[in-house]
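Lesson 9: reading folded outputs for more than one chain in a single document. The general rule is that every protein is listed as its sequence immediately followed by its structure tokens, and records are never interleaved. Here is the first one.
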Amino acid sequence: MKNIVQPLLEDYQIGDLKLKNRVVMASLTRGRATNAGLVPTPLMARYYAQRASAGLILSEGTWVSAKSIGFIHVPGIYTAEQIEGWKLVTKAVHDNGGLIFSQLGHIGAASHPDFFDGELPAGPSAINPRTHSFTPQGFKETPTPRELTVAEIKQTIQDYKQAAKNAKEAGFDGVEIHAQMGMLIPQFLSLATNHRTDDYGGSIENRARIIFEILDVILEVWNSTRVAIKFTPVAYSHVGIVTPDEETIPMFQYILKKLNHYNLAYLHIVGPAEDLTGTPVEVLQDNYFSHFRHHYSGRLMANLGFTQESANAILKEGTADLVSFGTPFIANPDLVMRFKYNLPLSEINRDTLYTGDENGYTDYPEAVYNGNSSQSEEAN
């Protein structure tokens, strides 16, 4: 791919933001906020700064409130101390010429009483999502949650708004709403976990209501082209009972139709990791991203374990505008340079994905380019 024009390396305009390339660093939970306050650390600032050559960095999923927690050592953005910690991160990224969005998340029912002094987590309905929560004592099965009251739903929406304000104060360039499988928003969308009979349950419109109420309050804080949302519409693995059903396709067609009026920074879609044959969404097997492109008129970001070659291909054909990479950015802080010069990628050490120190975090070496990619080596 050396000497070939790569769409991945072209700059790209999102509203008033100019991305220097179309390589996006996807959100990656790394478990390094190893302090009682879940405050971002100088080590985290170094980690993000190392990867600032990406056209855009998406922060790890970040808790919008103390009630949204469900995974150990993940930072929040709801206290003054956390805001100060994130300022270190955004400054480090900006000082290295990068851009960074904050991904705002709430895990809803997929949590555990260990995070709430023994109190049950809450979700759309009192239905166990049947997944696991990573607690301070290790992975534990989720219990049956209690059902959120309407007042609590309204407060949760305001928590997203405050988190969006905090992200702006912390120096982020925008925010991405974390609506992937396993989180609170998909729990509202799912027929399996939402049996409500009020304005937030029943019809497709009601189950999707929380998305647009969250978007609307965040748009009181940020310009629309600084706001994005990420979905994993057809995930099956490790998400318990929140899986695609017979209303998944019409649900997302409804969501996309409404999102067309928002002029968001982008819509971030994660593709299927499994064969969809025999599932309620089998029709998407051979035209997954094209389906979303057909129904969504705005900017589209694709994520599906892309390689350099497949990412350039989807951009070239126009099915996506941006491509996000997760795992490759862990072991390759200089991923963009490796793409530019067609250098081999380093492999990750899975044993250090969620450990609390620099090992397997900030100690992955950059490649040294000597003008011949076949002879390039990694720096010590």
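And here is the second record, again sequence then tokens.
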Amino acid sequence: MSDSAASSPRLLTERQRKLAGFAIGFVSLAVILWLLGITFGLLAQFIGHFSGVLWPITAAGIAALVMRPAVALLEERLRMSRIASVVVLYTLVGLAFGGFLLLIIPAIVRQLLDFIAFVPIGWERARVVVEANYPAWVEVAQRYSENETIKSAFHSLTGELRDLLSGAIPSLKAAGAGAMGVFGFVASLAIVPIYLFFFLLSHRDPTKGLGRQLTFLGEEVREDIVFLVKNFIDIVVSFFRGQLLIGLIMGLLLTLGFWAIGLKFALILGLTLGILNIIPYLGTIVGLSLTLPLAFFQTEGGWVLVALTLAVFILVQNIEGWFLTPRIMGQRTGLHPVIIIFAVFFWGTAFDGILGMILAIPLTAFFVTAWRLARQKYLSV
């Protein structure tokens, strides 16, 4: 019987079995991706809906991870209790921040008011310069503005924008909700130091005991999850600690560079762009779009000042790329610049706001690490 069974023809040929296996694998992969997409979508909706609750505790948690070494240093060197170390750290940071504000706020407010006053003057100067030096552009714009099709499309677009704005004008109830929204933002901002205080008081390792909560998984899988969580925390700490320092140094360098070449509003522009550089490349993109037109259209401006402004950006970016980032952060994330730019926009869209853009690099680095681990240990690729 065994001989006859062995000699009987199989239901599928070898090629058909491979094709069927490929089809089953493809369908399984599609189902897994579909489930992951649904899970990710629900998570993004949850984060977007509760962002007002989540962002203060997230900011406080990240700040606590960054500041813990300072608290530990005060405990060890000065032989202080944990709560005394936190209070001393709060006092030092508060005094430094308050002194900085007292020194810098008057100049920032003055430059901000001057910038607001300069906007209509700069716009008028831009119009005069364009009409005087580029009449062909003005002629083309006037010719196409008289085209009936373009006029119709422009009026249609204007009408849609008007309808959109009219729909966005709040009723009294919505205005009250907007006021509550502003109040909620201020309250959330005020509660961050409270969250941070209690987080800093804790000695507990965030990953301690995590493995004991995952007893339903195999030992090797539990170890991998704990490793990934620790790796993610390390990435978050090193990224934000380094990026804050890099942003501060870049802001100072940009301020000095703009002041040296005679660009208006150097202080407010330099510090703002330095803060925006916490999100990779955002400060550079916004900075170029603001400073280059300003350099051309300000009273003493022109192509020479535009070239000098561009040179300042190139110099500061090279200092950041070749010196600051390697010395301060090293190659911690290991991400290509194109991936970084894509990640910033992807996570910003996914989480519907600035929180996703700020967390883009740590999240992307975490998933890259998780993929490499899964490929090495579980996929055998």
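What the second record shows: Residues 82-133 form the longest helix (52 residues).
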